[in-house]
From TrEMBL:
Residues 195-297 form the Fe2OG dioxygenase domain. It comes from Cannabis sativa (Hemp). SUPFAM superfamilies: Clavaminate synthase-like (SSF51197). Belongs to the iron/ascorbate-dependent oxidoreductase family. GA3OX subfamily. GO terms for molecular function: gibberellin 3-beta-dioxygenase activity; metal ion binding. InterPro entries: DIOX_N, IPNS-like_FE2OG_OXY, IPNS-like_sf, Iron_ascorbate_oxido_reductase, Oxoglu/Fe-dep_dioxygenase_dom. Keywords: Dioxygenase, Iron, Metal-binding, Oxidoreductase. Pathway: Plant hormone biosynthesis; gibberellin biosynthesis; Hormone biosynthesis. The gene is LOC115720796. Transmembrane segments: none annotated. This is gibberellin 3beta-dioxygenase. The keyword Oxidoreductase applies. Gene3D superfamilies: B-lactam Antibiotic, Isopenicillin N Synthase, Chain.
Length: 343
């Protein structure tokens, strides 16, 4: 296990949640008020609905997030992804640490690097997959060749299917703004959307002895174009912030995937579509897991508001930026990052 410093280790290393009977001071938060019985809910869009494109535009403008059904990703695959995710996180703590993220890698086991932006640590653990997970998975199951192969195959299938769906959704979003394939080719990497950049993130939110004190994942926006999220059918963990309402719970919907917009989509749409502020809370009865597929361009593709959206009344709100550059800005300024690239 290679790390640069004790402080970095303390920042992104989880604790052994299974053996922790009390929320330590290092993990104690003041939580956002959220009414779990709130009737307001995010939109649900059926991709087979002939009005899907207009519904997507409305959801992207008003919410920045929606459920999607009839999306084409099989329920059998998603069930197997959840099973393998739970199998990974149920391993003994010391065994999971064998795949701890090294200093020069974003792949492997650990907590979100967003932890380093906050004085308190989070009640969660994660496993990040960028390309092939084989090397990290070998550390988790060194003597189980079949389990290693099956896990890797399932995750590769999941990522491929989610990327196909993300490509479809992105075209629908651009189409809802009146943009054509020709209009948007400037933001596509030379290899096309077939090789997008972005990780598959497995998240674990263990049972917490006092969920009123702990935070699963602190409030943030994603940086990607969009994120596809699968969440287990357990007590609600995901919450989003909606202006004039406050924090809204996103209850699991059987068979649906969650689509949430990232900052890069807000940039491309010149602010017409909004990235959504969200967080994850924990509970004291069920181990919750989720799987997030982040979809975006190559690191070096320059992104700016699409000129076809600009007119005399809507000058570009943001300067040109690459995803790599924006990630560096985000690492310093977190939820205020967009303010630092405004024109």
């Amino acid at each position: 296990m290679s790390i640069t410093s004790d402080s970095e280790y303390q920042c992104i290393a989880p604790i052994d949640f299974i053996s922790t009977t009390k929320v330590p001071e290092s993990h104690t938060w003041v939580l956002n008020p959220c009414d779990e019985n709130l009737l307001e809910s995010i939109p649900t869009i059926d991709l087979l609905d002939p009005n899907a494109i207009s519904l997507i535009r409305h959801a992207c403008e008003k919410w920045g997030i929606f459920h999607v059904i009839n999306h084409g990703v099989s329920s059998q695959l998603l069930d197997e992804v959840e099973l393998q995710t739970r199998r990974l996180f149920s391993l003994p703590f010391d065994q999971k640490l064998q795949a701890f993220r090294s200093a020069n890698s974003f792949s492997g086991y650990g907590t979100s690097r967003k932890s380093c932006l906050h004085p308190k640590r989070m009640w969660s653990e994660g496993f990040t997959i960028f390309e092939s997970p084989k090397e990290d998975v070998h550390k988790l199951w060194p003597h189980d060749h079949h389990q290693r192969n099956h896990f890797c195959n399932v995750m590769v299938m999941c990522r491929n299917e989610m990327n196909k769906l993300a490509e479809t959704l992105l075209d629908l979003m651009f189409g809802s703004l009146g943009l054509t394939q020709e209009d948007t080719k400037q933001v596509k990497p030379k290899t096309g959307w077939k090789n997008p950049y972005g990780p598959l993130q497995l998240n674990s939110y263990p049972i917490c002895p006092d969920p009123t004190k702990a935070m699963g994942l602190a409030a943030h926006t994603d940086t990607s174009f969009l994120t596809l999220l699968y969440q287990s059918n357990t007590p609600t963990g995901l919450q989003i912030f909606k202006e004039e309402i406050g924090w809204v719970p996103v209850h699991p919907l059987n068979g649906a995937l969650i689509v949430n917009l990232g900052d890069l989509m807000q940039i491309l749409s010149n602010g017409q579509f909004k990235s959504v502020l969200h967080c994850a809370v924990v509970n004291n009865t069920h181990h919750r897991v989720s799987v997030a597929n982040f979809y975006g361009p190559s690191n070096d593709v320059k992104l700016s508001p699409l000129i076809q959206l600009g007119n005399i009344d809507h000058l570009p709100l943001y300067r040109s930026v690459t995803w790599k550059e924006y990630l560096e800005i985000k690492a310093k300024h977190n939820t205020k990052a967009l303010e630092f690239i405004k024109n």
